[in-house]
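Posted in: Structural Biology > Protein-Ligand Complexes

Title: Requesting predicted complex, G3I in pocket

I'd be grateful if someone could produce the 3D structure tokens for the following input. Sequence and ligand are given below.
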Amino acid sequence: MAIVLLTSVHTMAQKTLVTATKGKFLIGVAVNAQQVNGVNPIETELIVKEFSAIVAENCMKPQTIHPEENKYNWNDADKFVAFGEKNKQIVTGHCLIWHSQIGRWFFIDADGKDVTPEVLKERMRQHITAVVGRYKGRVKGWDVINEVFEDDGTYRDSKFYQILGKDYVKFAFQFAHEADPNAELYYNDYNVEKPAKCDAIVELVKGLRAEGYRIDAVGSQAHMHMNSPTFDETETSLKKIKAAGVKVLITEWDISILPSPYEGANISVNFKYSKEMDPYREGVPDSIQQKWNKRMLDMFGLFLKYNEVVDRVTIWGLTDNTTWLNNFPIRGRKDYPMLFDRNNQRKPVVDEMIKMSKI
Ligand code: G3I
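-- Reply #1 --
Done. Output follows.
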């Protein structure tokens, strides 16, 4: 009897998105430092079992990994890469150059003045060479550059742009390629669904490729809300990137169920807390949950439809407990954007996604 029971449990083992989407795209998850350090074994088990790819949520960002000119913090990043290797997961590095989460030292000299273009270029070279070089052959691809454009398609007025102009983008791709010629290189941004931003990205990608720079994919972060972006805007962005001749990666997918005063993922944006903006503290009403499920399935169906160019779909976090959206763009709310709930239980929507994947 015991044997029969064991067998039936075994054969009823839950299917995963990893197996269901095999041959279509990778299923990734952003992992945080606690998870890499095995603080919560249940979370570790879910990451290993339910995902075929991992990306570092924070531990490879410039500010974390390179907080001072001659100081690198490799500890968590080393563990993160080793974690992926041990569990046979595809490892993505995030992110080499970003205007945010980067030490102020990067842009200033000993007098606190902006460095010259030559100095900034050299700092970029050293940073990228050190980080990419350390994990050469072990990281499949890098988010080389993050969030260059504003939503209207103009260049973001970042320190990189102010000091080096548009060319800083080229330098980043050049240095990354030199440090690991076999690594894939990606451009990554949020609100890629906004037409003007998407057009600017496509133009950049085409220009870089025409000049011989390696760029393998556009990463569409896909931080979504209940009403935006629309299905059509999302599909149009996939079509445009496909037409540019590069792959698409859905790099940071989540759908916030909460009302939002802001569409975007600029981490410096912050709004005041109010109870009206945090309506589901005691749980999500069924009608709203159904709407969220439908939106997840609509978008996932779209990614499946474009699977010949969509190489990976990565969820930006594991459980509703650990999602960054509990603190953005308003701190201290209770959001429900992940595939796993606050008790580490897989949500029913995942079974629906698995069914869809097999068609
Ligand atoms: O680690 C410290 C902790 O020691 C301290 O007690 C605590 C107090 O606030 O802060 C902790 O650091 C936080 C870190 O996440 C780790 O939890 C930072 O304040 C917080 O700003 C940081 O937020 C991250 C954010 O990027 C900025 O780096 C989010 O976790 C992360 O999900 C988010 O990810 C970005 C992508 O990299 C790029 N695309 C947008 C996406 C969402 O903003």
